[in-house]
Design brief:
By secondary structure, this protein is α/β, with parallel strands linked by helices. It is built from 13 helices and ten strands. It has a five-stranded mixed beta sheet, with helices on both faces. It has a five-stranded mixed beta sheet with strand order 8-7-6-9-10, with helices on both faces. α5 packs antiparallel against α10 (219-242). The longest helix is centred in the C-terminal third of the chain and has 24 residues, at 219-242. The radius of gyration is 22 Å and the shape is globular. The model has no long low-confidence stretch (mean pLDDT 95).
Length: 322
Amino acid sequence: MIWAGVDGGATKTLALVLSDKGEVGVGISGPSNYHDVGLEKAVANIREAIEGSLKDIGELPVFAACYGLAGLDSPSDFKIVEKAIVEANIAEKNFVVHDSVIAIYGATGGEAGIIVIAGTGSVAAGIDDKGNYVRVGGWGPLLGDEGSAYMIGREALARALKAYDGRGEKTSLLNRIKEKFGLSQVEEIIDVFYRKGVSVTEVASLAKIVSEEALKGDSVAIDILRKAAEEIGIHIEAVYRRLNMSGRVDVALIGGVFRAGELVLGPLRSYLSRKGIEVNLTKPRYPPAVGALIIALKKTKPELLSVEILEKVRTIAERYYG
C-alpha cells in the first residue's frame, strides 16, 4: 500500500509518498489553487506531482491521499475540488483539507498545538488532543490580516504621514518610506498609491524597514511591532480558548514577521503571560507535506506512524522547502 501527502499552493504542488515497505518519493508540479489556474489544471498538477513521487515505487491510484490546498475558502470550494479529485481516480481514499490544516499537523507532528503564520497575511490554527481543529484569521487585507507584514507596512505608512502632518510622533520611518518609493516630496505618495497603485506585497515589504528602524531605537517602529505582536497573541488566545486548551502549549511560528526576533517575540510572550496562557514558542517540527502524509496515515493506518518514519520522511521533504 502507498500513502500520499500533497501540499498544493499558489506557486507549486509538492507530493510526498510513503509505501508500506518504507519507500519514500517526492514529486513537484505547478500550482494547484483552482481559483488561479482552473479546476482541470489544478487537478492535473496534483496528479502529476503524485505520479512523479511514485517513480520506482508504484502507480496510481494510491491507497490514501491527503491534499492540503490553497484556495479552499468556502464550503462550495471543498465540494468542487473533492468531486474533481475523486473523479480523477488518484487514490482509493481521499481527504481534502485547507492548507492551514496540513501546516498545523506538520508543525506539531499531529499532536495538540497551535500554529501561527504571519507573513504577508496572518492566520492561526490549532488541534487538540482529540483532533478537533480550529482556524482563526486569514480573512485577507481588507477584512483582517492583523499582525501581518501587510498590516505592519500599512501602519508604518499611516504613522509616517501622521508625523509629517504634525499629528503624531516623529519617526525615521518617514525618510525610509520616501526613499523606498522614490519620493522627492511626501505629497507624491498620493500619486504612487492612488493613481499608479501599490500591491499588498509591496506594502508588506515595508515590515523589513520597520524592523530595521526599531533595532535602531525608533519608538514608533517599536510600537508598531509591539501592536503586531499583540494581534498575533490575540490569534493564539482565540485558538487556545476555542479548543478549551489548558497547561503549556506548543506554538509553532512561521512567516517573515518573526524575523524581527525579540522585537515581536518579547511583546508576544508578555501578552500571552498577561492572559494566563503558557506557551513554548517553537519552529515547526515537519513541513506541510509531511503534515498531509500524517493525516492520510492517521485516517487509515495510524499504527504505521513512528518517529523513525517521520524523521526519514522529513529529511527527504525538507530538501524541497526553501
